[in-house]
C-alpha cells in the first residue's frame, strides 16, 4: 500500500482537452531553439520556454484559466 497519489501525464491532459473540448495543444521550437506552444483552435500562442515540458505546462495552465 502506498500513500502516494496518481496524476495525469501531460499527454493525458492534452488528449483530454482534445477529446472532451476539441482543443489541440501543440509545442514546437522557434528559429532560436526556444520552445513555444500553440492552441490551434484559437491561434493563440506564447513562446520563449526552455523546454517542451515548460511550454506544455504553460499551455495547459492558459487553457484551464481561459478556455474551460
Structure description:
- By secondary structure, the chain is of the alpha+beta class.
- The mean pLDDT is 89.
- The chain has a 3-stranded antiparallel beta sheet with strand order 1-2-3.
- It has helices at residues 10-21, 52-66; strands at residues 25-29, 35-39, 44-49.
- 15% of the residues are buried.
Radius of gyration, in Å, reads 13 Å
User: Low-confidence runs (pLDDT<50, min 5 residues)?
Assistant: none
Distance between the termini: 35 Å
- What structural class results from the helix and strand content? alpha+beta
Q: Shape from CA axes?
A: globular
Largest beta-sheet details: 3 strands, antiparallel
Tally of separate helices: 2
- Mean pLDDT, to the nearest integer, reads 89
Helix content: 25-40%
Order of helices and strands: HEEEH
Number of strands: 3
Strand order within the widest beta sheet: 1-2-3
% residues in beta strands: 15-25%
Amino acid at each position: 500500500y502506498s500513500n502516494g497519489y496518481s496524476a495525469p501525464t501531460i499527454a493525458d491532459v492534452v488528449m483530454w482537452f482534445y477529446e472532451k473540448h476539441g482543443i489541440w495543444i501543440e509545442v514546437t521550437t522557434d528559429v532560436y531553439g526556444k520552445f513555444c506552444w500553440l492552441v490551434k483552435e484559437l491561434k493563440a500562442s506564447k513562446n520563449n520556454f526552455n523546454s517542451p515540458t515548460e511550454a506544455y505546462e504553460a499551455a495547459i495552465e492558459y487553457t484551464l484559466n481561459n478556455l474551460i
